[in-house]
Amino acid sequence: MSPPRTSQVPSVLVVTGANGFVGSHVCQALVDRGATVRAVVRRAGTAPDLPGVEEQVGDFADPAFAAAVVAGADAVVTTVHPMGDDRAIQQRVAVEGTPVLARAARDAGVDRLVHVSTAAVYDRSPGVGDVDESAALVGDDANTYAVTKRDTDLALGEVDGLTRILVRPPAILGPGDSSIWNTLRPKAIGEDPDERHAVPQQTFAWVHVDDLAALIADVASGRIAACDDAGRGPVRGACTPVNAASSDRATVRDYVGTVTGALGVEPVWDDQPAWTGQVLAGRARGWGWTPGVGLSDAMSEIAAGLRAQG
């Protein structure tokens, strides 16, 4: 049976972190679908300059601002997580702040909230196999990013009264100044020989930002309708995780080899245990999502971008 889909596009959608790597692509995807976007940013003049995008400057963790920005909205997309900051800031902004916005959305009668989570919430230790949405989550001894993303997901699970969707991508590829995998990580590899160490057989699970944004936009806009079966769409009134990963299998050798080759430096391959499973995205495909960017194109895009930078 095909997943439930609708051509209806909500009139107003709220996107936090609208000036970020994922947030800006989500704004574009929503505008392409005919939506009006309230783009939440912390600094004036930083929202995407797109038709139908209305900049909203403020702190979504402030209850008064949260209530104002979601009033009359049909859906909310949250993309903010300060992953480069210390644990206290990640706890305050993500774990404590995101539910403030979710509760405001619920109280305003918003239909659904889409939260950009991460596949890093899953335990992907050496020896653990493939992970789907039912897989075990990381323990408290995991890194700060994984633990605070896990705890944000759990906190949103406690906000009843609206449909919540936790979109969990692995490494997000795509060009951009703030792109971790196309720009920031390669920069570190080029500048620091210690960053060139990698376990070649380790799985490199990935998705392209264009494909990720398309899934988020289709879920947020209601093109993928809520239903009572997580295999066909978000469960109405519940909190449904959904993985967003390419079906093109890749290893760390593919990624690091591409980066070092483009930069003209040598990788250092380490021999140690590593996770070799896959992030399974069968649920998203059951919702009608089909990624369009293949591994060859994604790696070529990384290489071309790095060579163009000189």
Please describe what this structure looks like.
It comes from Nocardioides pocheonensis. Residues 14-216 form the NAD-dependent epimerase/dehydratase domain. This protein has 310 residues and is of the alpha/beta class. The chain has one domain (12-309): Rossmann fold (3-Layer(aba) Sandwich), CATH 3.40.50. 36% of the residues lie in helices and 15% in strands. The protein is built from 9 helices and 11 strands. The chain has helices spanning 21-32, 63-70, 87-107, 144-157, 180-191, 209-220, 252-263, 282-286, 295-309, and strands at 12-16, 36-41, 53-57, 75-78, 112-116, 163-168, 171-173, 197-198, 206-208, 239-243, 268-269. A 7-stranded parallel beta sheet has the order 3-2-1-4-5-6-10, sandwiched between helices. A two-stranded parallel sheet has the order 7-9. It has a two-stranded parallel sheet with strand order 8-11. Strand 1 (12-16), helix 1 and strand 2 form a beta-alpha-beta unit. It is globular and about 55 Å long. It starts with 11 loop residues before the first strand and ends with a helix. The mean pLDDT is 96.
